[in-house]
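queue> pop job 88
queue> type: inverse folding (structure -> sequence)
queue> payload:
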């Protein structure tokens, strides 16, 4: 990073799972730097979904460094995800033809739920997961039985990580959705299921979705159930691959809770 900005900048790691993000500061000027960030960051910036993109530079080794405004603010609390502004911003993202067009042009293929299911099965057959819990096998059987209900639905740009710490509220009251490294072209039920199951009380789903712009019906409900189960399995597998057993166990407990709620397994 120093070879791009110069020695007079103070650069510190910004944390995160990839270790590719940094804060840079000099004479009161502050930037958020990231190595090999999402290639459609410019469109996200132009649409006001992420903080303003200041510049992009390609290094000799092929890495691309992006610099964004470093804005003072905070992540949303879990309770604040219930706010209508979150539903409105997510609706704007899901209905953006510009984002969808660019993501397709840079080579993102629409997510096929059958392929997603096969990937989850392949991970379970890997020797690393030989001690897998029975609940995962029950969940995979549920996904297979329900597969026909999630195929052939309209695809949009999905963020795919609706964790409350990816929602940034600045001191000037601007709301952003950050960290787009896992974005996909997928069924909007993928994002909606994560938000509703994690953060919105069940009796408020109808109102929250009305603000987003859709009606809760059996079709949407079944698709959200399918994707939240699939994503929870994926999180378990990811943490087990990284030998993060405590995190994997926490997600396994979430999977059990979800399957009990959905009547897939009994208490």
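queue> result:
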């Amino acid at each position: 990073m120093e070879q791009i900005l110069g020695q007079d900048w103070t650069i510190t790691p910004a944390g995160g799972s990839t270790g590719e993000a940094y804060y840079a500061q000099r004479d009161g000027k502050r930037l958020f730097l990231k190595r090999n960030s999402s290639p459609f960051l410019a469109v996200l910036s132009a649409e006001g979904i992420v903080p303003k993109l200041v510049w992009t530079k390609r290094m000799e080794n092929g890495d691309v460094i992006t610099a964004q405004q470093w804005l003072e603010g905070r992540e949303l609390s879990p309770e604040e995800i219930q706010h209508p502004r979150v539903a409105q911003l997510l609706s704007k993202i899901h209905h953006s033809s510009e984002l969808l067009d660019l993501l397709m042009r840079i080579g993102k293929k629409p997510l096929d739920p059958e392929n997603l299911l096969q990937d989850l099965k392949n991970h379970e057959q890997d020797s690393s997961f030989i001690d897998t819990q029975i609940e995962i096998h029950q969940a995979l059987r549920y996904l297979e039985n329900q597969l026909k209900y999630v195929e052939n639905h309209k695809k949009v740009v999905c963020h795919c990580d609706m964790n409350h710490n990816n929602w940034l509220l600045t001191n000037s009251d601007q709301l952003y959705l950050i960290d787009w490294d896992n974005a996909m072209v997928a069924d909007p039920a993928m994002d909606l299921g994560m938000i509703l199951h994690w953060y919105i009380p069940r009796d408020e789903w109808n109102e929250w979705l009305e603000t987003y712009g859709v009606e809760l019906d059996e079709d949407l409900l079944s698709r959200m159930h399918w994707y939240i189960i699939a994503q929870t399995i994926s999180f378990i597998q990811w943490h087990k691959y990284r030998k993060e057993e405590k995190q994997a166990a926490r997600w396994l407990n979430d999977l059990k809770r979800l399957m009990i709620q959905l009547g897939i397994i009994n208490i």
